[in-house]
Amino acid sequence: MGSRKIINIDGLKIGGHNPVRVESMLKTPLRDLDGCLQETDALLQNGCELARVSFPDMALTDNFRKLIANSKLRLMADIHFNYKLALAAIDAGCKAIRINPGNMSGQGAVKEVIKAAQQAGTVIRIGANGGSLNNMQLDKTKGDRGAALVLAVEEQLRILLDNAFERTIVSAKSTSVPETVRVNTLLSQKYPFPVHIGITEAGGGLPGVVKGAIGIGLMLSHGIGDTLRVSLTGPGVDEVKTGYDILRALELRKHGYNFISCPTCGRRRIDVAKLSERVKDILPKDLPDGITIAVMGCEVNGPREAAGADLGIAGTPDGFVMFKHGEPVCSDTIDKLEDKLLQMIKTI
């Protein structure tokens, strides 16, 4: 969204004016190949565009090769320490790897990886996070962890640029929202490469969603970020869904439908929470991207407050009224809701 350079991962364009991409990471260990393939299918069905996969051991090379060959979802190998794993991932046909050049076995090893990536057309994402900062980086920045994160990325990036490699994505994450926003602001202003954003170790449940959404939302609202992952302690599918929720809220992407409902008050004629879940169960899975469905508690404010909805439902004393862009189209008793809703959906 904000970078000047565009990176291509097996046909997936990242950066420039391309859509902000939604990523996740496989939670299934690579030793469970069938489980990994099932997880990639589930992620793909929910709109995931790229997923990292941990590749921690050369003994898993055969499984990794089979995963790359059979997964319909684009994958990025997540490599630490052992440069031979990076070489094996590239040899297996993986079109993207995530490495930390600073923790590999010297300049010679990194040069081998860069040479292999150049020849194969592989993208290298360099990543730094708050947990990987070393004492030297903290000393140089007098304990400023944000400045140390910028320094860590620049040290890694310099290795690639000194070897004429620019097929690069940069990433700097912290569990602190202000720190992460500050670091990525500096990096995006200074370098033209696509930026992968997220808040690491955000946690799970509502607190994790809120923390990730605030951090990612702040960066995206300032034009920072070309690809994102909402890091949650939970299923990767939840990460993907939350990522698209953030992008829809900022009106950056229209993947899936937009569902709105009122917070309710004493005027409500229906149980909005229960009706919302019922409506979601009734809605067909193949609704057009970008349409808005609304459930409102009463006929007094509902049609006006949700006037932008392609189809809305508001409670009335006798049942419900349906409306399109604020204009009533039908009304009936609540037991006729499903039939009327399916009829109206066909007219959108």
Please describe the topology of this protein.
Blueprint: E1 6-9, E2 12-15, E3 21-25, H1 33-45, E4 50-54, H2 61-70, E5 75-78, H3 83-91, E6 96-99, H4 106-120, E7 123-129, H5 135-140, H6 145-162, E8 168-173, H7 177-190, E9 195-197, H8 205-221, E10 227-228, H9 236-249, E11 258-261, H10 272-282, E12 292-296, H11 302-305, E13 311-316, E14 319-324, E15 327-332, H12 337-345
Parallel strand pairs: 3-4, 3-10, 4-5, 5-6, 6-7, 7-8, 8-9, 9-10, 11-12, 12-13
Antiparallel strand pairs: 1-2, 13-14, 14-15
Rg computed from alpha carbons, rounded to a whole number of angstroms? 23 Å
The 3D shape can be described as: elongated
CATH topology of the largest domain: TIM Barrel
Average pLDDT taken over every residue: 92
* Poorly predicted parts: none
Structural class determined from secondary elements: alpha/beta
Tell me the total number of β-strands.
Answer: 15
Helix content: 40-55%
Identify the CATH architecture of the largest domain. Alpha-Beta Barrel
CATH class of the largest domain: Alpha Beta
Q: In DSSP terms, counting alpha (H) and pi (I) runs of 4 or more, how many helices?
A: 12
